Amino acid sequence: MALTLLSHELSDLCIGKPPLRCLSVATATVADAIAALKSSDEPFLTVWSCNHDEKTDDNDKCECLGKICMADVICYLSKFDNNVLSLSSAFDASVSVLLPKSRALVVHVQSSCSLIEAIDLIIKGAQNLIVPIHTKSITKRRQQQKLLKRNVVVSLTNATSTTHKNSREFCWITQEDIIRFLLDSISVFSPLPSLSISDLGVINSTHTILAVDYYSSAASAVSAISRAILDNVSVAVVGKGCDQEDPCMVLIGEISPMTLACCDETAVAAVATLSAGDLMSYIDGSGPPESLVGVVRNRLEDKGMVGLISLIDSLSLSSGSSSDEESPAGKTRMTSSYGRSVSSAARMARKSVAIVCNRKSSLMAVMIQAIAHRVSYVWVIDEDGCLIGCTIGISNYVNRLVRPRILAAIWVSRLNLKKATLDESHV
Questions:
Q1: Is residue 131 a contact partner of residue 10, using CB atoms and an 8 Å limit?
Q2: Positive/negative CA dihedral, 342, 343, 344, 346
Q3: pLDDT, tens digit (0-9, with 9 covering 90-100), for 175-200
Q4: Which domains are assigned to the chain?
């Protein structure tokens, strides 16, 4: 079984993966990124060092520089002064301002890359592995016809499929893809899956997690949210326990970058005016309550945030023709700030209710729970709801638990194979 795992290549995990959509760092702006994200079925877009123009003869190396989502846009816009000129310059800036400083999150590999090599890259911090895929010409033509039928206006968004002059496209493999694949061979890791996360020592303490108080301003959480995007985790929203002798942090919910990624840019107004607790409700999967929509608008006016008011009004006008038939004229675009015109991204969005377990939960149960909700962690609480910590990230799972077991199993398998060969030679 272990040798079978070793024989797999990343191309085996690429089956059915759609080609990545991309933006060029040389030409795309923040406004282009917003338009592309809104028209995409996926929450993330990749940013590349080239234009992927098949007509050019540029032989310079073209590579993916990183990935962006709407949560990156929201955190970026939250840093600007709330006046019209400041926000206008923010939209005109290069898309490169949205990219993380670290280039280690996205790594190029060949389709022949082995599973164990991919695991080593994850341990080093890679979240996405860019893999070349080969699409037959007839399949490519069908995909292009499908895009035309869906009326995807590429010229407006500057986002295209990542296609090079040799007709090669790219997909990516995530950490979750690797773990999901390994779960099909769970017997290799026995008895670890049945042990508790406490016994395995895979719980990070509260000192290492990102957390904000329920009543603190959402604006004060922007730096934590930015960090959460990089670490592929969420920000815990906590309150104080009732026991004064033994105070603890009670987990109330979370601010998830994946939930923010399914909002539009008007969520910046909520970040600027609401508390962390109210922001949870505002970006919840069912959409912001009308009462909070009114609160945000009133506070924007009270604080004289004309830039954000102008942004909301302009989006309301641009979407008015398409929403008049569905909603009363009095509602602004803010009411549907969660309602980006996406499908897969919207389905991926989770409610702000945190995914939790207790320290006695088995590793197998926690991993299945995390994969089912498409997260890389699970919050750990005690019987009173006090936050103990969260499970370690996928890269740490792989480093501390998965890789050693695979290597040990491979060593045993090879030893048995060698022994069997020697026995046959003596017969």
A1: yes
A2: positive
A3: 999 888 888 877 777 788 899 999 99
A4: 2-188 (3.10.580.10), 192-392 (3.10.580.10)
